[in-house]
Amino acid sequence: MLRLVNLITTLVLLFIASSSIGQETWSLERCIEYALENNIQIKQQELNVKVSENQLTRSKLSAYPNLNASVNHNYSFGRAIDYGTNTVSQDMEATSFSMNSNVTLFNGFQITNSRKQDHFNLMASISDVEKLRNNISLNIAAAYLQILFSQELVETAKKQVELTSMQIERTKQLVNAGSLPEGNLLEIEAQLASDELQLVNTQNQLELSYLTLTQFLDIKSTEGFTIETPNLTGFDETIPASSPHNVFDQAVNFLPQIKGASLRVNSAEKGVQIAKGGQSPRLSLGTSYSSGSRRFLKSNPLVSEDPFMDQIKDNASLSIGLSLSIPIFNGWQVKTSISNAFISLDNARYNLEQEKNILYKDIQQAYTDALAALKKFKASEKSVKALEEAFRYAEHRFNLGLVNSLDYTTAKTRLTKAEADLLSAKYEFIFKSKILDFYQGNPLSL
């Protein structure tokens, strides 16, 4: 019995723990952190960084001497010349081995420039990872704010349903009292049906917003997933920058897309130097050591056979030498490589300018959108206040039977649209302001 009680207690605790985990809310910072740790695209880009690291390591080690060894053991049958004794032999086995090493002393600084180029490529790959992380962070921030916007739309739609429901009750009393015709009640009931449909639409929009965010996070289900609702009522209603040009001057110094494009220009410059190095003579130092032995498979009275180790010692050979290679004509390959390297350099410079142009346009667009959203927000605030008064006046007159239901629903519809415009402008301004903050080096947060 005690075991059963313990088992039930354990199951209850596990259920409570799993429920609390499922109901845990996610902040914007946590969403971004989770995505950056688990996003597959980021992991793939990080693998490219490792490839660049390996390439840089290989470039560094190419300046050191190489060392190779080979061993051969052969059997020969039939008549053959024994080049060791210059005699005819039959059925012989031979063992040989060699070791050789070579190091490049000079090749037009191609090794040095290749190492520097691979270093720039590695740093550019790291910048690509940071660029991808920034893009994902901005997408998550947009999806997060879309949920907040949808939540407020749902709350507004619920209030409209409640308001219309209350109006139906008042209208019923007035109809029953004979103060209003029954057609007014039917009009209000139709308005309630429209408000309920709008509530369903906003709830569906909220579910889709949650789905978008969970897909960015690679979470399989939206069940139990909720976000924190920060207090945005007192948000700063000012543009967080004096001009797009000032934001650009800050962003161009640290954003990874600009840094990566600049590093690739440096890499292309080293590529030109590497190609030009192909015009230089190549000087290398080499050394080799070799030895071997042989043995007749059948006894040969004319040739004495030394022991294996004695032959290895007697046949040993060591050589050291310098090699100089001077390029004279190689089918225009070097000149073509130099020309292509200059083309790659020009292309890298164009890419850098293109990245700067894209960045400036994005900042300019965000600044213009933020300014427009702020103007729309302030205008919508005034419009909502005015329409609230107009609606209260129309509602009061409707209850007294001084206006028909069409005037009432028209006033209510205008107020609902103004409230939706106000929310839209609010979240548009917040998001664009966060983008401008981000371009100035500030982290994304609410």
Using brief descriptors, characterize the structure shown.
15% strand, alpha+beta, two-stranded parallel ribbon, four-stranded antiparallel beta sheet, disordered N terminus, 446 residues, 2 domains, Outer membrane efflux proteins (OEP), 10 helices
What does this 3D model show about the protein?
The structure is a single chain. With 446 residues, the chain is of the alpha+beta class. The protein has 2 domains: 26-64 and 109-280 and 331-439, Outer membrane efflux proteins (OEP) (Up-down Bundle); 71-106 and 284-326. 66% of the residues lie in helices and 15% in strands. It is built from 10 helices and 6 strands. The strands form 2 sheets. A 4-stranded antiparallel sheet has the order 2-3-5-6. The protein has a two-stranded parallel ribbon with strand order 1-4. A hairpin with a 4-residue loop joins strand 2 and strand 3. Helix 7 (256-277) runs antiparallel to helix 9 and helix 9 (333-399) packs antiparallel against helix 10 (405-439). Residues 1-22 have low confidence and may be disordered.
| Content of β-strand | 5-15%
Reading side by side through the largest sheet, how are the strands ordered? Answer: 2-3-5-6
Low-confidence stretches: 1-22
Q: How are helices and strands ordered from N to C?
A: HEHHEEHHEHHEHEHH
Q: Tell me the helix content.
A: 55-70%
Corresponding CATH architecture of the largest domain: Up-down Bundle
Per CATH, the superfamily of the largest domain is: Outer membrane efflux proteins (OEP)
Rounded mean pLDDT is 86
CATH names the topology of the largest domain as: Outer membrane efflux proteins (OEP)
Q: What is the number of E strands?
A: 6
Distance between the termini: 53 Å
Helices, by number, come to 10
Look at the helices and sheets and give the structural class: alpha+beta
What is the overall shape? elongated
Query: Please, how many domains?
Result: 2
The top level CATH class name of the largest domain: Mainly Alpha
Any idea what the radius of gyration is?
A: 40 Å
Largest sheet: 4 strands, antiparallel
